[in-house]
Amino acid sequence: MSTLTSSPLPRQVADAYVDDLIALDPTLGTYLGVPGSNRLLPDYTPAGWEARAELARTTLARLSDAEDRTGADSDAERRCARLLRERLTAELAVHDAGENLRALSNIASPAHSIRETFTLMPTNTPEDYADLAVRLRAVPASLTGYRASLAEGISRGLPAGPRQVEAVIGQIGEWIQGGGADSWFAGLVEDGPQELRAELDAAAAEATDAYAGLRDYLRREYAPAVADAPDTVGRERYARWTRYWNGTDLDLDEAYAYGWSEFHRLHAEMTAEAGKILADATPWEVLRHLEQHGQAVEGVDEVRRWLQDLMDEVIGALDGTHFELAERVKRVEAMIAPPGGAAAPYYTAPSEDFSRPGRTWLPTMGKTRFPVFDLVSTWYHEGVPGHHLQIAQWAHVAENLSRYQATVGMVSANAEGWALYAERLMDELGFLTDPERRLGYLDAQMMRANRVIVDIGMHLELEIPADSPFHPGERWTPELARDFFGRHSGRAPDFVDSELIRYLGIPGQAIGYKLGERAWLTGRANARAAHGDAFDAKAWHMAALSQGSLGLDDLVAELSAL
Predict the structure, then answer these.
(1) Which of 111, 322, 443, 484 is most exposed, with the fewest beta carbons within 10 Å of its own?
(2) What is the pLDDT of residue 271?
(3) By its UniProt entry, which InterPro entries does this protein fall under (predicted)?
(4) ω before 283 within 30° of 0 (cis)?
């Protein structure tokens, strides 16, 4: 355990928790850029999960003592304490329900975390490659522990959904490509120094074989055991996960109704915008037309450079006018995602010292042509002014917050809500006047409204309302959700399939985009009303981005007071 002063305040307790958590989860250390983390992998056995839970319980006890001390009532200490208590309580609820024993999905599982940590490791020196080899040799033990947790879940009647199992089996097949020199792990080490060639190749082969063993276990043992399990989770589990991802106990029926209200609003706006491109065509017909005939970037290398240029241009346009950005926050890299993952683009944060910059990642899904309408708003979301500006700013001001608030304590709905708000902000600022790009933005907004509808609807088996253009009066199933999403999205079928599996595998996360955006908009509206003509949007944005993570319980109140 970390060493604390005899009378720690909440921020010290929070930061000690981060230190102790890194010891249990070295992949977090790699994510943060902590020296000494890059040779290790987590213990994913049931005992390993219990060790994390015990750390959370110990930290909550320390926090209760710290909150009674002089100085704990300052705004900085109060805000950190509230976040730490809410987050650890939510995480313990998930652990105590045994959810870690069925942690299997197409986008978030120990199998994915282990592979992703290798994409964040430096490969600049022979020492870096030596670390890589050691960590690759740690893969078999870490995956064996993960299998033990999955087996324990089966013995306790806690299965993952069959769709998740099928998806992960397919993903691992892409990662290992039959083994040998064709595997992703072999490609990871191919540029290593010659003096380490034999060691790197052997370590990559061990990691590849370990993933092949996991795939075979899932196929031969786990899949038959969960074949009759439901893919949806029901209201009790869904409410637990909603708290975890959103930092609040939502009124799920109100949120479902809000999703439908946004669907109808956006449908009308999309219809109007589509008419500027093709008269008398539906938005979805226009989007399919743009997929083949709209503006596009040809080539994988070319699209990476195009996305980099887009982010660089936006930083230049926004800095000093709508934001005040530190030099190190201005650095962000566009990357191509490794194959075999989910279809959605994503962002990885900079290391704490910014030696590794923030990065956006584009899964190509085998494509070489990339329509622009589908990229611009997405990169406002993933990069600038979305995830990168918020999360890099947290890292930049971490000394004024706590390390916990700037990193581990991130609430998904806060970050995703900001990123969706950032898309809307770019529209408000006049960056989306081109009809193709603006229709793409509206389609992205519609996708997030659809997420609220289908994610809540299918997990709770809610009734489709009477004013719906799609199967009114019926109750949601995954099959209906797939059909609805496909009909009301400009995304390709493989993307829609990946999204549906994602919603089934991480229930309650996808609704945080739209509900988080609503919180950001409400907080801004309240602050503007309070300040009147004196409201300074640039100052408000920078203050909002510098307050660290908050759950939706607290976000509106804090934003309104800025």
Answers:
(1) 322
(2) 97
(3) DUF885
(4) no
CA distance 342 to 171: 9
> For residues 63 and 21, is the Cβ–Cβ distance under 8 A?
no
Backbone phi, psi, residue 431, to 5°? -90, 0
Total-model pTM = 0.94
> Considering only CA atoms, which of 111, 210, 101, 218 is closest in space to residue 163?
218
3-state class of 249 per DSSP?
Answer: coil
Cα–Cα distances in angstroms (integers) from residue 58 to residues 64, 88, 278, 315, 426, in the given order:
10, 10, 61, 43, 44
Angle value at C-alpha 416, between 274 and 323, nearest 5 degrees = 85
Question: Is 166 buried (19+), middle (13-18) or exposed (0-12) by CB count in 10 A?
Answer: middle
pLDDT at 1: 62
Angle, CA of 481, 363 and 310, to the nearest 5°: 110
Q: Report the distance separating Cα 220 and Cα 375, nearest Å.
A: 39
Max Cα–Cα distance, the chain, nearest Å: 72
Q: Give the other-Cβ count within 10 Å of 39's Cβ.
A: 16
Average confidence (pLDDT) over 327-352: 93
Q: What tokens appear for 285 in the block?
A: 């017909």
Tell me the CA distances in angstroms from 494 to 65, 367, 485, 500, one per residue in order. 51, 12, 12, 10
Element containing residue 229 per DSSP (H, E): none
Distances, alpha carbon 17 to alpha carbons 65, 325, 392, 403, in Å: 15, 29, 21, 10
User: In the predicted model, is pLDDT for residue 157 greater than 80?
Assistant: yes
Q: Give the pLDDT score at 180.
A: 80
> b/e string for 203-220 if b means 16 or more Cβ within 10 A?
bbbbbbbbbbebbebbee
**DSSP 8-state class, residue 369:** E
Task: Give CA–CA dist 322/338, Å, rounded.
Answer: 34
**Digit-coded pLDDT (tens) for 471-500:** 999 999 999 999 999 999 888 898 899 999
**What is the distance, to the nearest Å, from the Cα of residue 396 to the centroid of all Cα atoms in its chain?**
20
